[in-house]
Specification:
The chain is of the alpha+beta class and about 600 residues long. The protein is built from 20 helices and seven strands. The chain is globular and about 85 Å long.
């Protein structure tokens, strides 16, 4: 047992007969109320989370609400996953600290890009840091005599590795339990619906109830599994055994693949049309996972099968050439298209893969057949470094958007990319404040084509308005930069359109690159004529009172073509047309015809 082989941070107090524990560590006393407490915490967290994120799609951005929602969700999940009765206040402090960090990251990400989502690359980097930090914290809590967390590298690897796998198994099983819970509640609701009782169905329609139910199910499942972590340990070992069986398959495939590259060269990788770097990094991560499934928590835990052990050695070493291929692929991509935030994150991921690959080669060179004994401490140090790096990169310290802006603008200025091929949408919506500032500077350029395109990008409400499919010339770019009211001709003369209809036209982008006509029909509907979408009909929704596209408008079956005339001066009119149509028992069937 854990308590028999490692020093205890808090020895159990002497007491008279203890109940038989289902805990893996003898120092963890049973906690019968844990499932109920964890379910209650996550239920409240789910309700608060819903109240913070519940707003209409067109509501103004509220970064503080997104940040607070992230704080509540991360704190609750980290606490229920990592808490024990001993040193529970450590778990509370750890959860609140990471919740605050993720809240800060979310707050900054939400306001970084125009109309941007808080769930950006820094957010995922922070999540990675939390996932790596949690088993490190759990191990330090178990065996440390005090809170000197700077001695993380001295922790027992076997316990750290076990915590990491156990957290993964418990988290995955709890998420599966959430899905089963929703299915069961839905079936119960349908059962009562058969006899006219719709209470449960009505509750399921409310998002607030869904978040509370998900929280209760997740927290309760984590609590139940933590109280039976001897059983979870068995399940964890079963998962590792199943994964270990796949190690020889991947090892053999990697050997054949790397040998084949000697004959085929790397050019076919660049011509494949898929991101070679992403594929190599994904395979590298899978190789590390399977290698760890084979070598286990320690020398006594590794697979005794020599084939599996040899496969683990191949996987550990193969990470390095895969990472090198990914690095070359990234270099080629950056040379062709320059830096973007996504490519900077990709280079960082390649660096991490290279570090793991070098660690595998060093371990094999040092210990040969017993390479895993040298690999484990190296992986522990890499895990600590990965956590610190991910946390640092998630914080608003380095501005990847500014780096990308400087590089992309330099490519434009040097002529490496033409103005009509330049990614104006990225500058407007992906590179943060630096990108917007660069657009304003380019809008004042003496070169008309470049200035018009920059103004077009600045005027866009969202990145989809910046589709290069409809913007082909400087004149079109200049037109797209106008206000939507200047791009819509209203007929018959003297008619006006409400502001919300102009906003709807702008979102649909049918008047983006050329004039369009809005013809007010006698029945209150609007017929929109444009060179992009031909004719559309719009009407007020009878219930909500909002303008929306009228998909039910009767259209006569005929050849439809976009008008070639200049809609700014062309004569546009609505004429009555007599057609024939088939009726069955007085009801129309099919389309009208000549």
């Amino acid at each position: 047992m854990w308590g028999m082989t490692e020093p205890s941070a808090t020895p159990p107090a002497p007491e008279s007969p203890r109940p038989v524990s289902a805990r893996l560590d003898d120092n963890d006393a049973p906690w019968p109320l844990r499932p109920w407490i964890m379910a209650a915490i996550c239920t409240v967290a789910g309700l608060v989370f819903h109240l913070l994120i519940d707003r209409s799609y067109d509501a103004p951005a509220a970064a503080w609400r997104d940040a607070l929602a992230a704080f509540v969700a991360i704190s609750a999940v980290v606490f229920v996953l990592g808490v024990e009765l001993r040193r529970w206040h450590w778990a509370a402090g750890f959860a609140v600290a990471w919740g605050a960090v993720m809240g800060l990251i979310t707050w900054h990400s939400a306001g970084y890009n125009l109309n941007g989502s808080p769930i950006e690359w820094p957010f995922w980097s922070g999540i990675l840091a939390v996932l790596v930090a949690t088993p490190l914290f759990q191990t330090r809590r178990d065996v440390a005599p005090d809170a000197r967390f700077w001695k993380l590298w001295q922790m027992p690897y076997a316990r750290l590795h076990s915590h990491a796998w156990t957290d993964a198994v418990i988290g995955a099983a709890s998420l599966a339990f959430v899905g089963v819970t929703f299915l069961l509640v839905m079936l119960i609701g349908e059962m009562f619906h058969l006899i006219g009782i719709d209470l449960i169905r009505d509750l399921l329609r409310g998002e607030w109830f869904g978040w509370m139910l998900a929280g209760a199910a997740f927290g309760g499942a984590v609590g139940l599994l933590r109280e039976r972590d001897k059983l979870v340990s068995t399940l964890q070992r079963l998962v590792m055994i199943v994964l270990a069986v796949l190690a020889p398959v991947l090892a053999a495939a990697l050997v054949l693949f790397l040998l084949s590259l000697i004959g085929t060269g790397l050019q076919k990788l660049w011509d494949a049309g898929f991101s070679t770097a992403a594929l190599m990094l994904g395979i590298s991560a899978f190789a590390v996972l399977l290698a760890n499934a084979v070598i286990g928590n320690g020398a006594e835990d590794r697979s005794a099968n020599r084939v599996l052990h040899a496969a683990a050695a191949v996987l550990a070493v193969a990470v390095l050439p895969l990472a090198i291929i990914a690095a070359v692929s990234m270099q080629v991509r950056i040379g062709q298209y320059g830096w973007t935030p996504e490519r900077i994150w990709g280079v960082i991921a390649v660096g991490i893969a290279l570090a793991y690959g070098i660690a595998g080669v060093i371990a094999l060179a040092r210990r040969r057949w017993d390479f895993d004994d040298a690999l484990r401490p190296l992986q522990q140090k890499l895990a600590i470094g990965l956590m610190l790096l991910a946390a640092f990169l998630a914080l608003p310290i380095l501005d990847f958007g500014a780096i990308s802006t400087r590089d992309q603008v330099a490519r434009l200025e040097s002529g490496a990319v033409k103005a009509e091929k330049f990614d104006w949408a990225a500058l407007a919506f992906d590179f943060g404040p630096s990108g917007r500032r660069a657009l304003k500077e380019l809008a004042g350029s003496p070169r008309a084509e470049r200035a018009n395109l920059a103004k077009w990008a600045l005027a866009a409400k969202n990145r989809w308005d910046l589709s290069t499919d409809s913007i082909r010339t400087p004149d079109e770019a200049r037109f797209a930069a106008k206000r939507i009211e200047e791009r819509v001709r209203v007929l018959p003369a003297g008619q006006t359109l409400p502001a919300e209809l102009y906003a709807l036209f702008d979102r649909r982008a049918s008047c983006r690159a050329s004039m369009c006509v809005a013809y007010v029909l006698a029945d209150g509907r609007i017929a929109q004529v444009s060179s992009i979408s031909d004719v559309r009909f719009f009407a007020r929704n009878a219930k909500s009172g909002e303008w929306e596209e009228d998909y039910g408008a009767v259209r006569v079956a005929q050849e439809r073509r976009a008008p070639s005339a200049d809609l700014e001066t062309a004569t546009v009119e609505v004429r009555p047309v007599t057609r024939r149509q088939v009726f069955v028992d007085g009801q129309p069937m099919g389309d009208a015809f000549e």
